[in-house]
Structure prediction request, 136 residues.
Amino acid sequence: MDLLLEADPSKDMINDYLRDGELFVLTYKETIACVAVVKKIDDETIELKNIATKEVYRGQGYGKKMLKYLADNYKQKYKKMLVGTSENNIPFYVKQGFDKYEKTIKNYFEDNYDEEIIDGDLHCIDMYYYSKDLKN
Prediction:
């Protein structure tokens, strides 16, 4: 839970998508390096609800490995994977193949969280949705 909270500070929201989603854990030398939660949206689409890499392992490709595993795991059954993210993380996801802009949800972070959400030096307000085609 602590690692999931680094990517999403709301225990209520995490518990909500854990109820209906699938939790994935990537380990390195028997310790958790990266976690992710994926939730089915419909018969063709899944959504990456959370992905977080332990601070000591960041920048070493574990997040990329997790995303590749998830895409490979789900491509037999689903056509696309969505991700909703803050402005700061868009370049990372685009590099991982989430290159189709879907929509923006205005004021998402302000409407759904009690506290201010800060990502790096950015005050998060809107959520940006991108998708990755799993069938390529």
